[in-house]
Design brief:
By secondary structure, the chain is mostly helical. It folds into three domains: 90 residues, Rossmann fold; 134 residues, no CATH class; 138 residues, no CATH class. The protein has a two-stranded parallel ribbon with strand order 1-2.
Length: 422
C-alpha cells in the first residue's frame, strides 16, 4: 500500500490492518468494510470518474508515503495508541448536531468518515443551518415585506419570483450535497463566502424577523441611473436578475457536462528559512510605511486628507507604494502557511498585530483587515481539515466589532466615510 501511495496512486482497501489509520487519517484513499466487494467496486468506479478527487488523493498519498518513511519506526506505537483510543470510544466534543466524525474513530452506522472529502466535508447540521437562514432571511422576510408594503412597486412579484429561483439555484449544491463536496468546493465556497460577507457587513439583519413589520414602502434607486423612472429601474433590475440566473445555469452546465480538463501538477521545492525571509519582507514594509507617512506629512495629515474628497483621490498615484506596504501581511500569511510553529512564535504575532493596522491606515479599507483574518482561518482549516466552531464564532464577533470600530473611525472628523467599499 505504501508503495502505491509513493507513486501517487490513490488506494481503495478493505478495513484491515492499518488501512484505515493511513488512508483515512491522511486522506489518501478509501476504505470499505472487509468483504464488501460491491463497495470496493463502487469506490473504484467513483475514483475512475472523478479526476479531481483521484488527483487530490494521489497528491496526498505521495506526501503521506514520504512522511511515513520517516516515521516508520514510530508507526507501531501509533497504531497501538489508536487501538486503545478506539476501545475507549473517544469522540470529539462539540455541538451535537454539528459534530464531525472523528478521523480515527468510526461511528457505528455512519459509514466512512466525512473527512475523506478533499474540500473539508460539510456536516448535515451546517447544511440545515445555512438552508434555514436562506429560507428565512433571503426568501420569507423579503416576500412578506413585498406583500405587505411594496405591492405598488413596479414588477415586484416578478422580481421576487426570479430572486427565489436564483436563491434555489445558488444553494442547489448544498441542498443536493454529494460526498465529494465540502466547504471549499468551487460550487459551495462562493455561496458560503457571500453569506458570511453579507452577515459581517450588516449584522443588524439578524433582527429582521422582529423588525420587518416596521419597514415602509421602498423606492427603487440606483446611483448610476439617476433620473430613470421607477418602472424603467424595475425593468433594469429584472433583466439583471435574469442575466445572473442564466449565467449561473451556464456555470452549472459547464461544470457538470463540460469536458474534464487535465489538471496540471507542479512540483515546488519546500521553502526553507521561512521565518527569517518573512521577517525581512515585513521589516521592509515597515520602513516603506514610515517613509510614506513622513512624505505625507505624518499619520494625522494622511488621514485628514481623505476628508477633502474621497480616499481614492487622496491616494491617487500611490498604488505601488500601498502594494509594497501590504506585502507585510502577505508575508505573515505565507509564514503561517508554511511554518506550523508560527503561532507559537511571539515575533509572528508581533508582525501580524503590526501589519493589520498598517493595512488599514495605509488605504483605509476595512475589508483588507477582514480578508486577512479569513485567509488565516482558511489556512488553519486546510491544515487541520476541520471547521473550528469556536474560532469561527470568535472571528465573527471580532469582525462585527472591528467593522463597527473602523466604521466609526472613518465617520469621525479625521476620516471621511467611503460609500462604495467596506
Amino acid at each position: 500500500m505504501i508503495e502505491s501511495l509513493a507513486c501517487g496512486t490513490p488506494v481503495v482497501s478493505f478495513d484491515v490492518c492499518s488501512a484505515r489509520e493511513i488512508l483515512v487519517q491522511y486522506n489518501c484513499g478509501r476504505v470499505v468494510p472487509q468483504g464488501d466487494y460491491a463497495g470496493l467496486v463502487r469506490e473504484l468506479a467513483t475514483l475512475a470518474r472523478n479526476t479531481f478527487l483521484r488527483n487530490a488523493l494521489g497528491v496526498h498519498g505521495s506526501q503521506t508515503a514520504r512522511e511515513l518513511s520517516i516515521q516508520r519506526g514510530l508507526w507501531d506505537n501509533t497504531s497501538i495508541c489508536t487501538e486503545i483510543l478506539q476501545e475507549k470510544h473517544t469522540t470529539n466534543v462539540s455541538i451535537p448536531f454539528m459534530q464531525k466524525v472523528s478521523l480515527t474513530t468510526p461511528t457505528k452506522g455512519q459509514g466512512l468518515p466525512q473527512a475523506e472529502s478533499p474540500f473539508i466535508a460539510m456536516t448535515v447540521g451546517y447544511r440545515i443551518l445555512i438552508i434555514g437562514y436562506v429560507v428565512l432571511y433571503n426568501i420569507s422576510i423579503p416576500g412578506f415585506q413585498d406583500i405587505l408594503y411594496n405591492s405598488s412597486v413596479p414588477l415586484v412579484q416578478w422580481r421576487f419570483l426570479i430572486s427565489v429561483i436564483y436563491e434555489f439555484l445558488v444553494f442547489l449544491p448544498i441542498l443536493y450535497y454529494r460526498p465529494n463536496y465540502g466547504w471549499l468546493h468551487p460550487l459551495v465556497f462562493p455561496t458560503v463566502y457571500g453569506l458570511a460577507k453579507s452577515l459581517a457587513s450588516r449584522p443588524d439583519q439578524l433582527l429582521a424577523p422582529f423588525l420587518f413589520t416596521e419597514t415602509s414602502g421602498r423606492i427603487i434607486e440606483h446611483e448610476a441611473l439617476q433620473g430613470w423612472s421607477q418602472e424603467s429601474l424595475a425593468w433594469a433590475m429584472l433583466k439583471g436578475q435574469l442575466i445572473a440566473m442564466i449565467a449561473l445555469v451556464t456555470y452549472y452546465l459547464g461544470f457538470f457536462f463540460g469536458p474534464q480538463l487535465r489538471i496540471p501538477h507542479f512540483k515546488f521545492l519546500k521553502p526553507r528559512n521561512v521565518a527569517p525571509k518573512a521577517l525581512t519582507v515585513i521589516a521592509c514594509s515597515v520602513v516603506i510605511f514610515l517613509v510614506f507617512m513622513q512624505f505625507r506629512g505624518g499619520l494625522t495629515a494622511h488621514l485628514t486628507s481623505w476628508g477633502q474628497g474621497s480616499r481614492f483621490e487622496a491616494l491617487e498615484g500611490f498604488g505601488i507604494v500601498i502594494a509594497l506596504i501590504q506585502c507585510g501581511m502577505v508575508a505573515s500569511l505565507i509564514w503561517f502557511a508554511f511554518d506550523r510553529t508560527a503561532s507559537r512564535n511571539p515575533l509572528f504575532w508581533a508582525a501580524v498585530l503590526f501589519s493589520v493596522p498598517v493595512n488599514f491606515f495605509t488605504g483605509g479599507s476595512r475589508s483588507a483587515v477582514v480578508y486577512a483574518g479569513c485567509m488565516f482561518l482558511m489556512i488553519w482549516i486546510m491544515r487541520n481539515r476541520k471547521i473550528p466552531q469556536g474560532k469561527i464564532a470568535i472571528l465573527g464577533i471580532a469582525t462585527i466589532v472591528l467593522l463597527g470600530l473602523l466604521g466609526q473611525l472613518r465617520r469621525r472628523g479625521v476620516i471621511a466615510p467611503f460609500p462604495t467599499q467596506r
